[in-house]
Amino acid sequence: MATLGFFGGLTTIVFYGAAGPVFEEHLALTGVFHGLLLGSPHLSKAVLRIPFGAWVDEAGGKKPMLILLATTTVGIAGLVVTLFLTYPDDFGMHLYPLLVLFGLLAGAGGATFSVGISQTSYWYPSDRQGFAMGAFAGAGNIGPGLVVFVLPVLIGLWGLTAAYSAWFAFVVAVTIVYAVYAVDPYYFQLLRRGQDEDEAERVADELGQDIFPSGNTWESLRESASIRRTWVLVFLYTVSFGGGFTSLSAWFPTYWDLFHGFDLSTAGLLAGVFIVYGSLIRIPGGSISDRFGGENVAVASFSVMAIGAAVMTFAVGFWPAFVGMMVLGTGMGVANAAVFELVPKFVPEAVGGASGWISGIGGGGTLLILPALGYYTDVYGRIGYARGFSLFVVLSAICAAVALALKRYGPEAEDAADEAPVH
Predict the structure, then answer these.
(1) Contacts of 149 (CB under 8 A, 6+ apart)
(2) Would you say residue 420 lies in a domain?
(3) Residue 224: exposed, middle, or buried by beta-carbon count in 10 A (0-12, 13-18, 19+)?
(4) How far apart are alpha carbons 117 and 363 in whole angstroms?
(5) Nearest C-alpha neighbor of 1 from the set 179, 169, 132, 204
(6) What mean pLDDT do residues 56-75 have?
(7) With contact defined as beta carbons under 8 Å apart, do 98 and 86 qualify?
(8) Which among 140, 106, 112, 130 has a CA at the least distance from the CA of 276?
(9) Of the residues 111, 242, 287, 312, which has the fewest C-beta atoms closer than 10 A?
(10) Where in the sequence is the domain holding 144, given as residue range(s)?
(11) pLDDT tens by residue, 304-359
């Protein structure tokens, strides 16, 4: 159920990106303003992930998830009503502030990640965290990929308003199913039945749960914020997924349409391939991280990211760009799985708080990356769609170096040093 809620809520990271060329045409946006509109859902996603992820440590996952999904439905409903009243004859730049507001509301669905990642983490034992995080994030992230493929098809068949109405109905259905069937981890169930914290932890431990919250929402945020490794993971997540992958999920429909000249449906299909593949690769990426260590896998995957981004920086033909996109998606997906395999290892005493900081601030990276990609097109013109990927070459190389430092100075290295014999 955590995965289902995340699957439905995360679709809104492409709230405008799935039909980006349509909005750009009718609103006559510059590259930067287009990037800001695409990024509006990411602002609320980033801000809300921090408190809602930490709130799981106090309330479990169900209540926070439902509030986020309900807020998302309000944003989608607002856009549907606006389209019904104004599109296409009176749909123009004067509606831009209202569209940004609806994007902010719809973006609450993206915050379901920090709720679901914490909820899932508490359900699984420590030695299966990589698999659990990879399965949750991998399957859940498919949602945006399906939307960027299906929505343009529905727009062609039914029109823009009806297509977004179908999206609204889908998210409402997900919210209802989650409300009926979702169950919080053992520890939180036992607390609600009146058991004290020690007894609830003892019983939950017997049932297989071995990760527990250290306190309430703000204690979890404060404790995780005081651990330096939390902020290292924030940076790695920003580049690999929260800022990188989600930015490209919204950007690729426009990239394939305006740079390579594909129609909206084909551009959506290509963007959907990137999102679905980059999401599913997180599942084996999690298991690989369990086996070889998140630090080792992070070094390798960020290096792969740099290679894919370099190919896309200079690719002007379809096949080099497509290959570069898939290599980049491979690195991003596996790197993200590696990062979240490290969360319970680096911050075991405040998983919820750490997940909130990492996914919240990291997710806010889209607010910088999307306008930056738009700026490349404003400065360089059409070739700027390719040159913008040079940003990921630099960031990926830095992350590979940071991940190497984590391997050298992380908890396992400290433990080995502590256990070394004194001569």
Answers:
(1) 268, 269, 271, 272
(2) no
(3) buried
(4) 14
(5) 179
(6) 92
(7) no
(8) 140
(9) 287
(10) 2-410
(11) 999 999 999 999 999 999 999 999 999 999 998 888 788 877 887 777 678 778 87
Alpha-helical runs (H) found in 107-227:
112-123, 129-140, 142-158, 160-181, 186-192, 197-206, 217-225
Chain centroid to CA 242: how far? 5
- CATH code of the domain in which 383 resides: 1.20.1250.20
**CA count, 13 A, side-chain hemisphere, 170:** 21
CA distance 357 to 162: 37
Residue 82 corresponds to which tokens in the numbers above? 């606006």
Q: For residue 335, give the amino acid letter.
A: A
Q: Are 28 and 93 in contact (CB under 8 A)?
A: yes
> Helix 228-237 vs helix 318-346: angle between axes, to the nearest 10 degrees?
160
Is 190 part of any domain? yes
Contact (CB, 8 A) for 245 and 160 = no
Kindly state the DSSP code that residue 259 receives in the 8-state scheme.
Answer: I
Q: Which two tokens stand for residue 391?
A: 């940003």
Q: Give me the number of domains the chain comprises.
A: 1
